[in-house]
Amino acid sequence: MPSAVPSSRGSSPVLRLCRFATMGTVAALILVAGVWASWGTAQYVMLTKGRERGTVEVGRCGAQTCAGPYAPSSRGSQPRAEVVLEKSVAVEEGGTYPVVLEPDGERAVRSGPAGILYAWVPLGGALLLASVVVAGGLLRTRAAWVLASSGAVLLTAAFLAI
User: Which residues neighbour 88 within 8 Å (Cβ) at sequence distance 6 or greater?
Assistant: First the structure.
């Protein structure tokens, strides 16, 4: 007895092309959004030439941020009584962390390998999400496994580094 649901192999070439274009666009948009979300922080961590670098000794933490005095380590950088650092599971009171200051000089971003990996965490999530779209919508299981593995490796490395 024939199935009531047509298979993707029996559908018209136009419908297959539309599905491929739509799912390809969705996967590409997910990846672009992941890069966009990551680059907001990653640009300060990765492109440090000419930026103020130093350390922050966290003195107090609130719900979303932590703050503490800034000690410079780069030439031309001035010490500050207090800079703000985003609170994450790896930032705790009393800890000293290497940072790069954003251009306004008030906010700090973690630097070093841990900071770089942490900055790219949104891309890791986007890779995992895009792998589902590529596997289910494009029927490209090998490409989906590559995307999923890359995202899992990035997220695991960030977790271990922080």
Answer: 118, 162
